[in-house]
Amino acid sequence: MFSFARPHRHDVLIAAIGLLGGLFLWVLGLHMQGDRPFVAPWVSLLPLAVVSGLELVRRNAPQAALVIGTLALVADQFTVGNLATVLMFTDLMYAAVLYGTPSAARRIPVTTFLITVAVTIGFLTWFRNPQALLIGVVTGMVSFLPAITGVSVRNHRDAAEAALLRADQTALLAEMDRTQAVTAERARMARELHDMVANHLSAIAIHSTAALSIDEPDTSREALGVIRENSVDGLAEMRRLIGLLRTGGANPEPSTSPTLASLDALIGQARTNAAASGLTCVFEDVRDERGPLPAPVELAAYRIVQESLTNALKHAAPGPVVVRLGWAGPLLAVEVSSVFGDRAGPRAPGSGAGLVGMRERVVLLGGAIEAGPVRTGDGPMIWRVRAELPVAEGNVRA
Q1: pLDDT per residue over 155-167, tens digit each?
Q2: Strands 319-328 and 279-285, how do they pair?
Q3: Is it true that domain 172-395 has CATH number 3.30.565.10?
Q4: 10 Å Cβ neighbour count for 190?
Q5: Percentage of residues in the chain with pLDDT exceeding 90?
Q6: Where are the chain's structural domains?
Q7: pTM listed for this prediction
Q8: pLDDT (tens digit per residue) in 202-215
C-alpha cells in the first residue's frame, strides 16, 4: 500500500533528475534496443514516467514501488528502451531493501540471486552460446547488485543506530551513577555534620536556657563554662569537616575520624554537659578482645554513641546513661540506655534526623539497629539504642 506522506526532498530530486535525464536521452534518440513490438520511441516514455513517479514513494512504500517498478521494467523491454528507466529501477531495488521491512530486506537479495541464476541458466540453454552469460551479468547488475548494496548499507545503519543507543544508555547510566554518588556523598556529609554539631549545640542550648532561667552567679558561671567548651569543640569539629570538603574527600573516611579509643573523652564531656540535668554517664566495655576494627565500623560505633548521648541530654529523665560495648557473636554490639520519661528543666528540641542518620550508618555496614523504650524487670522504663555491626572488611559497603 502506498503512503500519502510527503515525499522526501531527496526522492523528489532523484525523480526529477531521472525523468529529465530520460527525456534528454529520448530527444537525442539514444535507445537501448531496437526491433521491439512497440517501436515507436514515445512508447518508452510511459515506463519512464511510471518509474520516475515511483521514486517519490521509494521511502514511504518501498515494496509496492518495487513491485510496480518491476512491471514497468518488463514493459520497457517491449519498447526501444530507456537507460534512465533501468537506472531508476536499480534505485527502487536498493530502496526496497534499505527502507523496507526486515523480512523484505532478507528475502529480496535471495530472490534476486535466484532470478539471476535462473536467467543465466535459461538463456545459456536457449542460445547455447557463452555470450548468453552477459544477459545473466546484466540481470545481476540490475537486481542482485542493488539488493546486496542495500543490505550492506542497512546493516551499517542498524549498527550505527545500535551504537548510538548503547552510547545513550551508557550516558544515562553514568548520569544515574553520578547522581547516586552525589546523593550518597551529601547524605554522608549530612550525617557527619549532624553528628558532630548536634551534641555541642544541644549542650549549648540547654545550658544557655538554664543560665537565663536561673538567676544564680555560680549556676550561670558553670553554664557559661560548658557553653564555651562546647563552642570550642564544635568549632574544631566544623573546621575538620571543612578541611575534608576542601581536600576533595579522597578517602571514604578521613584519617582523623574519631575511633572507639576516643569514647572515654566523649563520655567525659557528656558527663560535664549532663550533670546539670541529673544524668550520670557510665561507660562499660565488656569486650574480651579490644584490637583495632575497620575504620568505618569504629566511626559508626562512635557516632551512634555520640548521637545517643545527645538524645539522652535532650530527652532522658534523671538517672544513669549507660554506654556498653560488647560482642554478639562476630558482631560488635553498641548499646546506650537511659531512663525514659519526662524531666523538669530546660530541654532542647529534636528533629529525628539523628535516628535516621544512625540507621543509615548501620545499613551501609550491613548491620542491624533498634531504638525504643523497653522495660527491664521491676525498674523504670528505659530508652535503649542497640546496634550490631559486622566487623569483617567484606561487609563494609561504604
Answers
A1: 999 999 999 889 8
A2: parallel
A3: yes
A4: 14
A5: 31
A6: 9-171, 172-395
A7: 0.51
A8: 667 666 766 666 66
